[in-house]
Amino acid sequence: MAATGGAAFTTNEDAYIKEFFEHREKNIETAYQELLNNVISTLKPLFTGPVVVQTPDGRSFDLEYITNQIKIKTAPLYIVDNNPNKLIALPNNLTELHPRPDNQIKLRSLYNQLKRSIATTNLDILAEESIPNGDVRNLRYILKDFNTRKDIPKSHMTNHYYLTGKILLYLKNHQQTVSEFLKDVKHDVGYSKSYTYFLIDFYLLCSRYTKLRTVAFPIGKIKTHFSYIKDAVCNDAQFWN
Question: Which of 215, 148, 223 is closest to 192 using CA atoms?
Answer without folding.
Answer: 223
